[in-house]
Each structure stands twice: as structure tokens, then as C-alpha cells.
Amino acid sequence: MTRKVTLIKGDGIGPEVCEAAKKVVDKSGASIEWEEFDAGTSVLEKYGTPIPEHIIESIKKNKVALKAPVTTPVGKGFRSVNVTLRKSLNLYANIRPIKTYAGVKSRYENVDLVIFRENTEDLYAGIEHMINDEIAESVKIISRKASMNIVKAAFDYAVKNGRKKVTAVHKANIMKLSDGLFLRTAEEVAKDYKDIEFESVIVDAMSMKLVLNPEDYDVLVMPNLYGDILSDMASGLIGGLGLVPGANIGKDAAVFEAAHGSAPDIAGQNKANPTAIILSAVMMLKYLGEDAAADKIEKAVENVLKEGKYLTCDLGGNATTDKFTEAIISKL
């Protein structure tokens, strides 16, 4: 059965890497029909928003989307498109696999961990105000329900994928109520998964441990802000954000996206690395039960990276986006 998927082309390098992923998926044998939309700065003037309501309605209808990066202004302007989608669709689990690849320069070997980041609350709830002209206040929200959802998702993933350990990351030594609630909830959920090792680590110590011995970790689960920071930091261990895919999963919808930004400085130059969004498409295909196509693409990406002939500039090569994509397709 052909599955219809919403394709959000984004802005900056978004349309380029999105087209690369689309070509690879189409050549993989997967039964996918795309419903394509422009988003970001290219539609802002027309719709007054970078993510018009008809795109959100398409995702609600199709249940699955593949999304390219969309620019978010710093300190002003419209709210992050990612935050808008996560809130609108209740995409409570952000999942980012962090894995070293042969052929990619890195200080580490054998890193293979997955970060589960709660996606809907914490400081990203967007509850903030000015107390006076000199003081701004932002409210951190941690609920038992959201904490339980993300921790259960992490443990279920560990069981399904043969992972051995789940590590909860927190700052409950200082934020005894909010992070304390997250930690207590994680400890409670862990009791139902006797075959999975469980530990908890304070977030600052976790930062150090990931840099020293990232190969010691398997599945990490944490509130929103820590997940945002540690997943980007962990990407630096394996060669950068250009290699890191991502999924945003809820009960009724899922949006798969590259972890990196829109890189407007190289937009339109055929330089962008499409690996992250192609691997995000792999996650999407597995979610849809298209395992054979997903495995084929994943193996093709690994082979191209290992051979090292067609690496993009961020990986130390000089291949164009098109050449890199063609190399992957040739491996299929």
C-alpha cells in the first residue's frame, strides 16, 4: 500500500537537502507518495507565518511528515517552526541517534547512543514575561504525565532495539521540585523494565561523561532544554550536526527532520550535506514499516561515507550535494 507523506521543503539549504532525500527514498523501492509544501521565509509574506495552517492540517491527515530545516530568528520575530509543530501536534518525543561512521573524521570510535528529549514543556513552553524593564522571567514546566511519556518511550525503544541501559539526565539536586518530579517519575517507570539497566546522572556531570567516554552510554532520556543542548553537543563527538537525524513522535503524528539548521550562508550553492535528512527519512521508513527500503538506504549511506570519495565540505571533502546524493543512489 502506498503511504502519503507530507514533505516540508523549508528554507535556506532546506529545499536542496529535501530534494536529495526525496530522490533517495524514491529510488529505494519504498511505496511513498509525497504531498509537498514550501515553508519558512519564502511563504512568510503571503501567509504571515512560516508554517501555514494548511501544512499542519496535511500532517494531521497524513500522520507522517519529512521536514527540512526552517530558519528561526534569534531574539525576535516569529516563534520556532519546530516548537509550533511539536505543540500543535503534541509531538512529545524528540529522538536523535548519535553514531560514529567509518570514513568520517572523529576523535571517538564505537559511539552508538540515542537521546530521548521531552518535546512539549520545560522552558520551551514559552511562558515568559517582563517583571519590569530590568527583569525577565521564564517559567519552567515539568509535569508527571509528560515525564512518564518520554521515559516510557525511551524504555520501550531500548526493549525493541536490544539496548541494555537507560540513563535519566536531570538537575534535581538544585531544582528539587521540577527536575525532582522528572527524576522520581523516571525511577518509577524503570521498575517496570527489570531487564534494562537504569541510572540517573546530573546534567553537568553528563556533559563531562559524554566527552570522556561516550561509548559507555546507550539510551539517554531528559527534559527539553537538556536534550536540546546535549544532543547538539553529542553530534560534535561524531563529526557534526550534518550526520544526525531526528524524529518527533506523538500519539497521532510523527515529523522526521534533520537536526541541523537552515545554513542560509551556503543556500543555493550545492554544498550542503544531506546525510542528516536522508537518515531522518530512514527513521521515517522504519516507522512506516518500510524496513527493507530503510536498511538499503542506511547501508548505502554508510558505504559512501566509508569510501570517502564523495564527502561534502563539512566532512572534509569537496563533493557537491548532487554528487553525494548520486553516490548514495548508485549504492542502492
TrEMBL record:
GO terms for molecular function: isocitrate dehydrogenase (NAD+) activity. InterPro entries: IsoCit/isopropylmalate_DH_CS, Isocitrate_DH_NAD, IsoPropMal-DH-like_dom. Its EC number is 1.1.1.41. The keyword Transcription does not apply. Its cofactor is Mg(2+); Mn(2+). Keywords: Magnesium, Metal-binding, NAD, Oxidoreductase, Transit peptide. SMART domains: Iso_dh (SM01329). Residues 4-328 form the Isopropylmalate dehydrogenase-like domain. The keyword Metal-binding applies. Belongs to the isocitrate and isopropylmalate dehydrogenases family. This is Isocitrate dehydrogenase (NAD+). It comes from Clostridium algifaecis.
